[in-house]
Amino acid sequence: MAQERLGVLAIYLNNSRLEELAYFKRLSKEGQRLGVQVEVFTPADVQGNAVRTLTFDTSRGRWLRKYTTLPPIIYDRCRYRAAANYHMLQAFRNRHAKLIYLSKPLANKWAMHQTLSQSNAIRPYLPSTVRYSTIHELIRFLKKHKLIYVKPKNGTGGRGILRIEQISTDLYLLQGRNQYRSIIAPFRANEKQLAIKLHTLNLSPDYVVQQGIHLTLNDGRVHDYRLLIQKNGQGEWEVTGCAGRIGPHRSITSNLHGGGTAVTQDRLLGYRFSSQEKIVGIKDEMNDFAYKLADYLEVKFGKLCELGMDIAVDPKGNVWLLEVNPKPSREVFRRIGQHATYQKAVIRPLEYALWMLRQKKGTDDRTD
Predict the structure, then answer these.
(1) Rounded Cα gap, residues 226 and 131, in angstroms
(2) How far apart are CA 239 and CA 229, in angstroms?
(3) Using CB atoms within 10 A of its CB, is residue 81 exposed (0-12), middle (13-18) or buried (19+)?
(4) pLDDT in tens, 235-244
(5) Could you identify which of 83, 153, 232, 334 might form a hypothetical disulfide with 342, taking C-beta atoms 3.0 to 4.6 angstroms apart as the criterion?
(6) pTM
(7) CA 31 – CA 131 distance, rounded (Å)
(8) Using CA of residue 32, residue 21, residue 17, residue 304, what is the dihedral sign?
(9) What percentage of the chain carries pLDDT values higher than 70?
(10) Which carries the bigger pLDDT value, residue 43 or residue 258?
């Protein structure tokens, strides 16, 4: 039986190495078992309708380059870290609009907040968020909420995030990470000193300012949860798994790339809540919310393949959405030893691609 072809749209890092190559290797191996040849390429590898792809040869254990036609279905794994990347990928999609795409790009953090705020079902899960305008307005927002996060609207992986907390009448604590994910030394200041410090950070309307949720554990480290929901082989949403993440000491984020530790969802909930009934209720609410959010985003943006949701649970057990990512990592499940969940997380995009191809062939057969 002829193999189906799945194109994986990727992007080069600064050193000309493909981002997520280890994931693509695992995807290729699982694809071979399902009868899917995974072909990795970037927009720069395309010339007309021809493309220079990377395929993983499992028998020889190495990647091979070859020229071929564009695959009929595309799994977009490009992360838009720079405007140039975004424009390059949009140009590719516009030129090759007849290809099948497993998902559509979502909005930046500010536009996403505005979109989600339109839903009565989702709005209660959103921390109060505004677009950065002036330092004066930021400090007013801080005095109202006592704890805030300042985030680049297009940032990923914890880059460039600040945490500012009012710890007494005229004393504030600023912490954060720079654009390279390095931890910024904690800075204590009065209001005037804080304003001067913020001025040096060159904030702009490309940042959003968000109400902070208290995520600090007893040992002072912050935590949150990564929930992964994906389309299955029947084209339906299904929660694949949820795991906890705990940031390193002095970090304001829990991202694994920034040195965070992965723990099971039950274990992390157990650090804060002693009632098993309470824990079950929180887990059920997380899952219910994930389905609501996935359905709503498809209505707003079109067909999607998978979503990673960064979820916070405050000390009272209330569930909050911190961020949603259409190109999520699944590494957290491997880190906590949930290998079956990790494998499922890898396989599901392949199964969904096969389902999409079957739908397309069924439609073509009916129109012949």
Answers:
(1) 25
(2) 4
(3) middle
(4) 999 999 999 9
(5) 334
(6) 0.91
(7) 42
(8) positive
(9) 94
(10) 43
Residues near 169 by beta carbon (within 8 Å), at least 6 away in sequence:
none
Distance CA 222, CA 175 (A): 12
β strands within the chain, DSSP E: 4-9, 36-41, 46-47, 50-57, 62-69, 73-76, 100-101, 129-131, 147-152, 162-168, 171-177, 183-189, 207-211, 223-231, 237-246, 261-264, 306-313, 319-325
Which amino acid, 170? Answer: D
> Structure tokens of 99?
């290809």
Measured in residues, the chain has a length of: 368
Report the candidate in 347, 339, 355 with the shortest Cα–Cα distance to residue 27: 347
Q: And the tokens for 332?
A: 């957290």
Q: CA-to-CA distance for 93 and 280, rounded, in angstroms?
A: 42
Count the alpha carbons within 13 Å of 202 in the hemisphere toward its beta carbon: 3
